[in-house]
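Need tokens for this chain, all 205 residues.
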Amino acid sequence: MQKENDSMDDFEFDVLTEIGNIGAGNATTALSQLINTKIDMNVPKVEMLTFAELAEIIGGAETLVAGILLNLEGDIEGTMLFILESSAARLFVQQLMGCVTGDEGEFSDLEKSALQEIGNIISGAYLSAISGMTNLTINVSVPSLAFDMAGAILSVPAIEFGKLGDKALLIQSVFNDMNVDISGYFILIPTLESYGRIMKSLGLR
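Here are the structure tokens for all 205 residues:
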């Protein structure tokens, strides 16, 4: 994937940014319907980064995060992650779902369930945007939720896809119109063949 990613031109990057914006719109609608409250979400950043750079963007390799991981199959294969910094994840759940618990210690079962559902909705929204623009089929595994340091969370796809390249697509989403703005990070790591299919389906390769 190194060669493919490094050769990306501005137009291709604009298309990926537009996919991010459409995905954010889909996710906003789904989350708003889930909690019956208006939510705003925007996409301030779309970047192609190495795994080491991803950890730094999130706050450093030792930053505690909540990560929702999904495996992708079908026309697009690979891995997708939705990551929230741990304290932001707790605040996010409390703001959106109203399941207020303490600010320290382990997440409650209710918070974990809410986080997994939120991550599933957001990830599904972005995948729907990609599938809709490319007409490619994407099958998704049941999401798995993990709490660990960012470096450990990112090591899972890094090890699996390291042989194909060391870069991934980062789409940062900012949820606002709550008491504070909360950043979430959507990370798509397609296989080399899948990345080529995405670009070809969009008429870019």
